[in-house]
Amino acid sequence: MRPFHTCAASPTAAERVRSILASAHSMTVVSDGRLTEVRCLDGAGAMGHVHLHALFEDAGAQAATRVPVKLELTDIAPTPVRDRVRARVTVTGLLATPYSTEATKSTCMEFGQAVLEDAGERTYVTLHALEATDLDPIATSEAGMLTHLLDDHAEVVPLLLRLVRPRPGNGMLRALPVAMDRYGLTLRLEYPHTHHDVRLPFKTPVTDIDQVGPQIHALLATARRFSHPSRLLA
Hints:
Elements: H1 13-23, E1 27-31, E2 34-38, E3 50-53, H2 59-62, E4 67-76, E5 85-95, E6 107-118, E7 121-125, H3 127-131, H4 142-152, H5 156-160, E8 174-181, E9 184-190, E10 195-201, H6 212-225
Parallel strand pairs: 3-6
Antiparallel strand pairs: 1-2, 1-4, 4-5, 5-6, 6-7, 8-9, 9-10
């Protein structure tokens, strides 16, 4: 049997930024010298409250009449893993008027730049890249699916560990699902003084939420075929 490889395609920076903007439950808005905590995005994500568009052609001439704005969002793992902050996103731009939580429709924001901070790295994402990226079909359901997996099917996590190579050492304290996207499932392996993540790739990228169940079952079926110790060797 061929060994199972955990190297897999992963979301681009633009995909991750778009997923975080769509799934975030809260954000911080800094505008006109004021910091506003928007703690309930009503399931609409940040883009249900702020509409991003390109800078107007006359932006240079009118910049003095516009208000700089910064959106700050934090991507937090829905499961109780160590170090739950997975990424941070900052979007900067201009508003015609100071941001207000009393607005009855989404606020138009002239896009400046988006920055993804993840694992000590910083990646800049353009508006063109965001607009050219399809929203991950799992993004807004990821939290519910991961908590369901952990709360109701925790017994499958040790089974999925059979797919990890090199095999986790005896010093591993626990393994928990930490992320899921259209390309696969990520487990966090925790040790006494450190932790690291391993990706278990789906056979093919998910294009519809209904495909997630069959993809998980396919991973489990592969894991069961690795039940014999000799088959776990890379």
